[in-house]
Design goal:
Elements (H helix, E strand, L loop, with lengths): L7 E5 L2 H12 L2 E8 L2 E8 L2 E8 L15 E4 L3 H14 L3 E8 L7 E6 L5 E6 L20
Parallel strand pairs: 1-4, 5-8
Antiparallel strand pairs: 2-3, 3-4, 6-7, 7-8
């Protein structure tokens, strides 16, 4: 038996704010949504494939001190796509870690940008090559443990 991740469901505190963020940063399309007061959600994806479901059913910010999602990572084809995403991340004013594109580890070519959504959910956009020109962050564990 093999498994492949399907879509990811995220709890958000403000559906409209989160939906706007994910549409701008990732270029997602809205596949469907509900505005019922007791059941607000939005299905987001690309090229006919569902990627994220945002559920407005929480308050506050993501707590990295509790069990749950460490970060959500998205791979793009090349470092130029990472840099385009970084530009949008800066434009929307999201919290950006490490001041931009960094490699996954010292001497690694793979890497990307590490940032947070409006609820503090940690995100990564990375490419398999092209990020090795900057030094790797010295805080955190190797690879994707930079938060």
């Amino acid at each position: 038996m093999t498994f492949k991740t399907g879509h990811v469901g995220l709890n958000v505190s403000d559906l409209d704010k989160s939906k706007d963020f994910y549409l701008k940063v990732f270029g997602f399309e809205v596949f469907g949504e509900s505005d019922r007061a007791d059941r607000r959600y939005a299905f987001l994806g690309l090229d006919g494939e569902l990627v994220l479901t945002l559920w407005q059913q929480s308050e506050g910010r993501a707590d990295t001190g509790l069990p749950g999602l460490h970060h959500l990572s998205f791979q793009v084809p090349d470092i130029e796509a990472v840099r385009r995403a970084e530009t949008v991340i800066r434009e929307v004013g999201a919290t950006l870690h490490h001041d931009g594109v960094v490699p996954h580890g010292e001497g690694a070519s793979s890497g990307g940008v590490f940032f947070e959504d409006p609820d503090g959910i940690r995100l990564e956009i990375f490419a398999p090559t092209g990020a090795g020109e900057r030094p790797a962050p010295t805080t955190g564990a190797p690879t994707c443990g930079f938060f």
